[in-house]
From TrEMBL:
Gene3D superfamilies: Galactose-binding domain-like (2.60.120.260). This is F5/8 type C domain-containing protein. Residues 259-394 form the F5/8 type C domain. Transmembrane segments: none annotated. InterPro entries: DUF5000, FA58C, Galactose-bd-like_sf. It comes from Mucilaginibacter terrigena. Coiled coil: none annotated.
Length: 399
């Protein structure tokens, strides 16, 4: 049987055209015979984090028919409406979303036109919101252990701090002036010290630091509590405590010269004796100590001669008059450090400057308050069994 292929092709084409006509308009049934319109999209959407809130911002769509934007979060469970006040894409619309929890959010922005048509929507993801959990991790910026503060000749005090953390914004320092008024100073992130005028000597200095969790955050966070800058113990209350077994003085360098605020010779010098030996002093009042400085004899004795290399610090509130150690508690054992590490007799400029500023030794946290101090010398830089020093500064909490 012969097949007319031309006729067959023609029949197929006819049926195809009929089929297309039949289904080409079927989509209209799903759209209720209405055209779908999608309003224009916003651009450059981003956020600034905050304290239990966030700021969203974006450049508006140039579509003039847009009347409002819907912002939603928590998978659409929460939302807010923002009116379209501009259609200039050079402008920026900023929106504060309040009353959030400390969490990481995703926000969706949907534009609506004047006929109720909506855009496909855009998301701003990974929006971290901060709150009390973050705040609880913050610590106040550390004051300088080596040189917490300096009393200046004009009646002011300069408080020194360690390098700030990268997220630190500022630190507020509170103090009392000579008129009895509470005053504040402010330390910026890049500053290492702050000077407080008309300072009432011996009064409390406390400080609190502020942080930005992110560089563009709209809120800063303060550390929950103030910390105190330790103050110099009142050396006018100090007195020698001479107990049986304590070593004496020699060459006219007396024990009380260790707290006479004279950082030049003479200081305190002991006679020669075998190690260990010790001396004691009365601070006059009980104090919670945070640290102390020992000032070496300088010149040829620097990191040499009878300057202490290893020693112990002991404390008591009721020393036994027989001079025994039974009523004393050892606070810590210390080793003097030479910055250059060079051998005895070979000192660098850094070594000289470090010693001249006084070598700082920290008191372990949690050490109970004490009134009486005993220093037990275990070794000197030269190994000679005698001791000398120019001055002692004890730092304490102001309580």
């Amino acid at each position: 049987m012969k097949i007319n292929y031309k006729a067959l092709v023609l029949i197929v084409i006819v049926f195809a055209v009929i089929g297309c006509r039949k289904y080409s308009d079927d989509y209209k049934a799903f759209l209720d015979n209405h055209e779908v319109i999608y309003p224009g999209l916003v651009t450059n959407s981003h956020y600034n984090t905050g304290n239990l809130r966030a700021q969203l911002y974006f450049n508006p769509s140039p579509d003039p028919s847009i009347t409002r934007y819907s912002l939603s979060w928590n998978n659409g469970a929460d939302s807010m409406i923002v009116n379209a006040t501009t259609h200039d894409p050079k402008d920026t619309i900023k929106v504060i979303v309040p009353s959030l929890k400390e969490y990481v959010y995703s926000f969706k922005i949907v534009a609506f036109d004047d006929k109720g048509n909506r855009s496909v929507g855009q998301e701003i993801n990974n929006v971290r919101v901060y709150g009390g959990v973050y705040q609880a991790t913050l610590l106040n910026r550390s004051y300088s252990l080596v040189n917490p503060y300096v009393l200046n000749g004009d009646g002011s005090v300069t408080v020194n701090f360690e390098k700030a953390d990268s997220t630190n914004l500022s630190t507020t320092v509170q103090y009392t002036d000579n008129n009895g008024e509470l005053k504040e100073g402010h330390l910026k992130k890049l500053s290492a010290s702050v000077t407080l005028p008309n300072y009432k000597t011996g009064s409390l200095i406390k400080y609190k630091s502020y942080y930005l969790p992110e560089q563009t955050a709209i809120d800063s966070f303060a550390v929950s509590d103030f910390d105190e800058v330790p103050i110099l113990a009142n050396k006018s209350l100090f007195a020698p405590l001479r107990l049986p077994g304590d070593i004496g003085s020699a060459y006219g360098w007396e024990l009380q010269y260790l707290w006479d605020n004279n950082f030049n010779e003479p200081g305190f010098h002991t006679p020669g004796q075998t190690f260990p030996f010790w001396f004691s002093l009365d601070m006059g009042v009980r104090s919670t100590l945070t640290g102390f400085k020992m000032y070496q004899r300088m010149g040829g004795s620097l990191y040499n001669a009878g300057n202490a290399k290893r020693f112990e610090l002991w404390g008591s509130n009721d020393p036994d008059p027989n001079g025994s150690f039974d009523s004393w508690t050892k606070i810590a054992t210390y080793t003097s450090t030479k910055p250059s590490g060079k051998p005895v007799g070979d000192n660098t400029n850094e070594d000289v400057a470090f010693a001249a500023a006084g070598e700082y030794f920290p008191i372990p946290a949690g050490t109970p308050e004490v009134r009486y101090i005993r220093i037990k010398v275990l070794d000197t830089w030269s190994g000679s069994a005698y001791f000398h020093a120019l001055e002692l500064n004890f730092y304490k909490q102001n309580r």
